[in-house]
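Journal club prep, shared notes

We agreed each person brings one worked example of a sequence with its structure written out as tokens. Mine is DUF402 domain-containing protein. I'm keeping it raw so we can talk through how to read the token line rather than staring at a rendered picture. Sequence first:
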Amino acid sequence: MAEGGAVRRVTTGGSTAYWAPGSHILWRYRENAGERVHICRPVTVVRDDAELLAVWMAPGTECVKPVLADGTPVHGEPLESRYTKARSVRRDRWFGTGVLKLARPGEPWSVWLFWEPGWRFKNWYVNLEAPLARWEGGVDSEDHFLDISVHPDHSWCWLDEDEFAQAQRAGLMDTRLATQVREAGLRAVEVIRAWGAPFADGWQHWRPDPSWPVPALPDDWDRTPAHVSS
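Then the structure, token by token:
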């Protein structure tokens, strides 16, 4: 690994560059109906190729998350006004167990794996979002509110349907986009029912390299990418 976990690019078979395992990149989300970055999570690359980007967010990672302008946590605000009050961002840390995030190029969702303490696998979490846009420092997306929880017994359920509906009422998502998001969710459900990738790939048995340092949050975490390519 490069010193300090710095980004290392690996070029394979032409001009497509991938990040080497152990590299540190930023996994970011733009605010809804806006251009500013309001979520930023430094992560360590596990795998990056034409089929999959897999990254590890370690416990204790310093992140950026949205808060209301007065510092109130977003989910502490009643749903009816949650998306209309002024917001800011705050540095914080990811507490609890780490998260493994998996994303296929061009797919409108990523799949996150959660564990209980002691590495007891908890669940997969399908985060519906804009396909990841790659840039030199990491990947950017926009969260689409609606999610799916998938359990070890292969059962599943929708999550955050109330937030999905409220985001539409608040003007953060028009009817066209909401329809696309619901359709993407139904496609994800088809994958779940067929027990396709990544659910059948054994990622719940993966463990991080114990020598990996926790990535640092850079001061310019919200910098605008000089070049973005999908």
